[in-house]
Amino acid sequence: VCFHLRMNSSFKIRVVLHLAPLLQIHYLMILSANWAYLKDASHSLVYQDIRLKEERELQDIQSRSKECLNSYS
Predict the structure, then answer these.
(1) First and final CA of the chain: distance in angstroms?
(2) Which of 5, 16, 64, 72 has the fewest Cβ atoms surrounding its Cβ within 10 A?
(3) Could you give the CA distance from residue 38 to residue 31 in angstroms, rounded to a whole number?
(4) What is the pTM of this model?
């Protein structure tokens, strides 16, 4: 019975020793995926800000041109 318990505990130790590197790799992959997601999100926010500024400028230009056309009429 003691031999059977020793086999189980050594088996458990071997399993843990083999799983530890895999779990570390998995953890690093999750970290890199989260970093990429956050980096992409920050780039999209910058892009949206630039796009909104350009749209406002276009609207200002259009409204000014309409005002000029109305003043000539």
Answers:
(1) 105
(2) 72
(3) 11
(4) 0.52
